[in-house]
Q: What sequence folds into this?
């Protein structure tokens, strides 16, 4: 078995192959120089120096030996030969496979704008990116973050913890607009402003200007913003190059079903590089640890001839300052919301309904609500907004009874 | 180094030397202790590193935070008074000899 991509998802797939009973060889190829590591802390603890890179490595070297997983870091796969069932490494070596898993992840989107090549205009995707940002943060006073999504806001929070001046520039009128509802966006805008972040919403970036090759300002629709470091956090692009080149069905991501199967029965795909075909025909792209782990477990099962359907409710989290945001389900298109708890005390959840069906819950410092909502969403529930709006409503008790 | 013992769901005992300051979840997952999923990587966001603490050293543990208690309400295996999330326990000399029985299921 061959796994391309040694992130958290690729590692999970390799391990799940062993759990599913595969006793043959497993090759795990990763382009980065590190063994599989936890990516979420990069924008949080790592760049403010609260954890070391070593702490993020998921498995020690002994583990790979014990499990018989042959990990090759710093190794790029150049092509997939589906007819011969071989992958071709960058140095020309061919490695045969019986089953193949694509866990190639995603790349940070960059902005093709004037000045984007200046020193100090960076993205955050890999551990090396994060180590570079950590070093740069130590020597600058002012930071501009382009993009008010999770990565951008986590970087802003980390930079404020270090005492840097921070400006967040976001093109649309609210923060985390793709992921959370308007009240949650507004609450986070207030949170960041209270922590001294300058927010520029509905502001377009037109380029970057610098002195002696080093960035000095972000040019925006509202004028220049001085910054010695610019972190661009404007989303990711699924890395489906290998899949497209070998003719697998792709549409901004490798198309998979609920079993992580691609259009070739010998190949599965998982994590950020995928677009999952839903029952209604739409394609769902999720960039999250849970998505990678679940798709890896399903993909490993399929490679062993078993069907393990991915049906779990999507969940995500984001840590900004001392606030934990946890999201269960997808709230897009919601038409009714009920708030539990107290936004003024930074402890509340908002539950969402779409066409009368409970679909999602955003929790701020209310982890118990998040877990309860996930349980209800996973099992399917007839929870109504009127029921939740009753002052005596207890979400945890409702989930226990489910 | 701090000595800790994990008892895997299938009964296997794994003795490990924990580096001070590391979470016991990290110690366990880096060595591949079976039965700990730790999907969130130690952020107290998923409740999939549930263990039962045993041995004399269990009494020396700092009590769980409010956030950990909230997550413990939702562990999938039975919650007992000895239930902890191993990502929230830091290796320190006071917990030398701690035994962690990994919960039989995490999700």
A:
């Amino acid at each position: 078995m061959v796994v391309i991509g040694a992130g958290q998802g690729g590692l999970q797939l390799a391990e799940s192959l062993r759990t599913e009973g595969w006793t043959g060889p497993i090759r795990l190829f990763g382009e980065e120089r590190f063994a599989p590591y936890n990516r979420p802390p990069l924008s949080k603890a790592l760049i403010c120096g609260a954890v070391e890179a070593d702490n993020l490595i998921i498995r020690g070297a002994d583990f790979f030996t014990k499990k018989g997983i042959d990990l090759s870091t710093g190794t790029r796969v150049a092509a997939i030969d589906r007819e011969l069932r071989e992958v071709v490494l960058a140095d020309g070596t061919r490695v045969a496979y019986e089953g193949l898993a694509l866990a190639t992840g995603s790349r940070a989107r960059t902005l093709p704008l004037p000045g984007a090549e200046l020193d100090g205009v960076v993205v955050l995707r890999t551990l090396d990116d994060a180590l570079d940002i950590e070093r740069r943060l130590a020597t600058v006073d002012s930071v501009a973050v382009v993009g008010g999504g999770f990565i951008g806001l986590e970087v802003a929070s980390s930079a404020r913890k270090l005492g840097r001046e921070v400006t967040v520039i976001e093109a649309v009128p609210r923060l985390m607009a793709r992921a959370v509802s308007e009240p949650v966006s507004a609450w986070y805008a207030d949170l960041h402003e209270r922590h001294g972040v300058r927010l520029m919403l509905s502001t377009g970036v037109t380029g970057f200007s610098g002195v002696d090759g080093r960035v000095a300002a972000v040019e925006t629709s509202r004028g220049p913003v001085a910054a010695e470091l610019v972190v661009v956090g404007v989303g990711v692009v699924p890395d489906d190059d290998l899949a497209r080149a070998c003719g697998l069905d792709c549409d901004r991501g490798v198309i998979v079903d609920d079993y992580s199967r691609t259009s070739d029965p010998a190949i599965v795909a998982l994590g950020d590089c995928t677009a999952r075909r839903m029952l209604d025909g739409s394609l769902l792209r999720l960039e999250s640890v849970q998505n990678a782990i679940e798709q890896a477990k399903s993909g490993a099962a399929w490679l062993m001839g078993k069907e393990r359907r991915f049906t779990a409710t999507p969940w995500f989290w984001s840590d900004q300052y001392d606030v934990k945001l946890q999201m269960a389900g997808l709230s897009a298109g919601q038409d009714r919301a009920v708030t539990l708890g107290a936004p003024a005390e930074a402890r509340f959840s908002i539950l969402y309904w779409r066409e009368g069906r409970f679909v999602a819950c955003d929790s701020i410092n209310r982890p118990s609500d998040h877990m309860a909502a996930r349980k209800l969403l996973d099992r399917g529930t007839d929870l109504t907004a009127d029921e939740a709006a009753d002052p005596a409503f207890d979400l945890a008790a409702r989930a226990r009874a489910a | 180094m701090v000595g800790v013992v994990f008892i895997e769901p299938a009964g296997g005992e794994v003795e490990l030397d924990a580096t001070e300051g590391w979470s016991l979840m990290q110690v366990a997952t880096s060595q591949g202790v079976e039965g700990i999923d730790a999907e969130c990587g130690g952020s107290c966001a998923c409740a999939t590193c549930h263990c039962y603490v045993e041995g004399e050293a269990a009494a020396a543990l700092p009590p769980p935070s409010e956030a950990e208690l909230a997550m413990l309400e939702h562990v999938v295996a039975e919650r007992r008074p000895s239930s902890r999330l191993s990502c929230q326990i830091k290796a320190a000399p006071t917990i030398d000899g701690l035994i962690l029985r990994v919960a039989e299921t995490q999700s």
Notes: Chain A touches chain B through 29 residues (CB under 8 Å). The mean pLDDT of chain A is 97.
